[in-house]
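pinging the channel bc i need a second pair of eyes. not urgent but kinda urgent?? the chain im working w is below, pasted from the shared doc
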Amino acid sequence: MTKTANILLFGGTTEGKAAANWLNDMGFSYHYSTKTPTSFRVHEGCQKLEQAMTAEDMKQFCQAQQINLIVDAAHPFAKDLHWNIHRCAHELGIPHLRVERSFGAQSDSQQVHYVASLEEMTRHCHAKGYTKILSLMGVKSVGTLHRSLPEKKLWYRILDRPLSWFEALNTGVEKQQVIASLQFDNLNDADSLIEEQGIEALLTKDSGHNGLIDQKIELAEKYQIPLIIMERPVMPEFTKIAKCRADLRQYMEANYVLPKSDLAHGYTTGTCATICARAAATLLISGLCDDDETVSLPDGALVSMAIHTSDKEQDSAYATVIKNSGDDPDLTDGMVIGCRIRYNETGSIRFVQGEGVGTVRLPGLGLPIGGPAINKVPRQMITHELQALVKEYDLVNASFDVEVFIPQGKRLAEKTFNPRLGIEGGLSIIGSTGRIKPFSSEAYVASIVRQLDVVKDNKATEVVFNSGGRSERYLKKHFNTLPSHSFVQYGNYIGEALKVANGKGIERVSMGIMTGKAVKLAAGNLDTHSRKVVMDKAFISHVVKEAGYSDEQLEKVEQITMARELENLFPFEAEEPFFKLLKQKCEEVARREVKDFELNIILINNEGKLLI
């Protein structure tokens, strides 16, 4: 494509800020539109628009600025805005792309009830006879609930912002009915109110994982009280729905000229936590917090990052950022990461448990058992910045508790290696350099090292290597007496995994490998990633000849486009000549990296059958 992108981005949300980062990493500038003023600092060369826009306003702006792409990353419940954007895009013939937040499936909890509208929600409350109700819906619904449920005793949880306070009190509710929350990572204030006041029902919107829907459901289940959830409004049709950076990049590459051809670097969870720790501590000490904060990386380089949110209570302060992983596939890209800082009287910097950060339960990670899963280098980075602030402000005997949090960490951790590493309930705060190289193997190999350190410290002598979740499920059925930490995923890094396994006290390694990776390994490739190596049909033909097959069978092999098609040409049996020889060649290549353990290769077909 030769088209240059002129972009109007509707934000004001976590997704809006993440989309701004993604576009900037690709080299695009944008106009960032919000209904009200925001502290978000747009990237260089970009423009802020801080006013409500009707469909006609949008149309005039798009025509004046020659906008040729509208990106809607506004809140899912901003119904009028979504349809105004759609109307403008349709009338001007402009592509209309939606950056959507993550939503789970509807909960099957007995405490959860779904309604289609605010009116249906209030009717439900009347019908059920609830008298003490806590609304977790934000400030926009306060007026309607106050008018519709006048005989009920309601409390309203809102963000502690001057505009939110004004809107809430302007509806006529009493100040003591309002919980102005600083908590972006948990619902502790709501938890306390439920217990103190005997709350009978909770109200909320289905605003997705960023809206803490998981924690709200857990709260309802903890107290066995109903949670009434208002379903998301009907959205217009979009040209494209992007749920992550990769989706957006794919669309932009296909339709516009990318100003930057190089892939963007990102920053680790450790760097994000350090930025937040310094910003929060500065706010606690001085009462001030800039729009962005700067810290030192381990190599001495400086990095700055925009602050997403921040606030201060009497004895604590917090700050958050939006994680920018660069062009590296990362679960936490676009997520909120934060840190809360409190004074303590220990005389030292103490790391305490935060929401969404895992708790260490097994040895092998070099971290205190029972403490938060914050790795050594991030701890050093945070400690360095806090000590620098103590010196800068000439504080005497100041010491702090450091509480790193990731609101979506508990949910995301289920997709990581953390459970097998003995880390429960959340993600790890990691990073040895502070930076993330795009598509680097560094993070994955580091995860292999951590897994095998846990194996060593728990004195496991038998390990089962596998390439991923599917092959691991097949292998666990066979090796069903082994503990979870004995199963180690190597991804594509077979050679690295075998090297690291040496010297760990392991006596036997069983390595499961599916046909597609097996033909690459047998050909001598210890890194089987598709960016490094593709299926070598000439090598496969050589194996077929060596196994003694006819020219007719060889011709069939030469027609395949995927390695797993070999499973249709040859019986997947232990004594079948082709697979027997393939297994042997895999073992010959892999054993070059083995020093002190027995290795057995296990071939796995697409249906999960094992050749041991």
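so The CA atoms of residues 413 and 419 lie 8 Å apart. and The radius of gyration is 28 Å. — does that match what u expected or am i reading it wrong
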